[in-house]
């Protein structure tokens, strides 16, 4: 729903007569603000500054909306000489991620002037548990949109009383690694009595947009590989138009203890396509042959926990781990043949 600011507020000056959108925030998911405060994406020693973002905030007490004016970005990076950047910004009021707002795309500029107004429908007394996330992208019509970086604004009450318009300029934080394809949270639990492994696909964060609309339709394929051959393949549901999907889906696999040492799991995050072939958004591998420390460590910890018997008879807890998604499937896991039955 697109409205005019002067239909909702008595604000004066440049903050009037600017088109903006109102987003209802009725449903909260299970992710806490603490999760974002800890910030798995803010990995110490790996972040760098990638320009600045300027915006303004005010709370409209009459209509119970947090009003957001995205003004401009400056000094955005360009990865290659002679290449241009087509930036746009997505905004979330964390921890809610189901609703977001997005600026228009500014063509061929490192200093985009957005000058767009948005509004989140949220009670004032709940703002103490919320924080704003701005994600800056480089639009690409034909491939993945490039992630430039993020701005996280915490402690909304401490920054301003929100009774009047207050302008902020904050640094955009990105990864020093150019190939940042997002993160995936997985849980593993092994049942020695049943000889089964339970893989829970929990959620993904900051996936690359693949569609011209700036979205993707992600689902997760979990492939059990034993001695270089595919034993079983299962899939999660597909989450439409979502770069931060929440699944909380558990997939079950038969896995005798005698086969653990020679078993790996290939996890692929895919973008569903109605017409053509589904695209790979990224992947990770669990097992001793994983190319990442996270993939090997989670696998080892899952089976190390078998040695610790709970004297009270309580069930072991699943082993959780965030994985930085790889851009390509490792060579040894490509074109895996099916195992003969």
From TrEMBL:
Pfam families: C2. This is C2 domain protein. The lineage of its organism: Eukaryota, Metazoa, Ecdysozoa, Nematoda, Chromadorea. Keywords: Repeat. The keyword Heme does not apply. GO terms for molecular function: calcium ion binding; calcium-dependent phospholipid binding; clathrin binding; phosphatidylserine binding; SNARE binding. SMART domains: C2. Residues 49-166, 180-303 form the C2 domain. GO terms for biological process: calcium ion-regulated exocytosis of neurotransmitter; synaptic vesicle endocytosis. The keyword Repeat applies. PANTHER family: C2 DOMAIN-CONTAINING PROTEIN, SYNAPTOTAGMIN. GO terms for cellular component: axon; dense core granule; plasma membrane; synaptic vesicle membrane. SUPFAM superfamilies: C2 domain (Calcium/lipid-binding domain, CaLB). It comes from Oesophagostomum dentatum (Nodular worm).
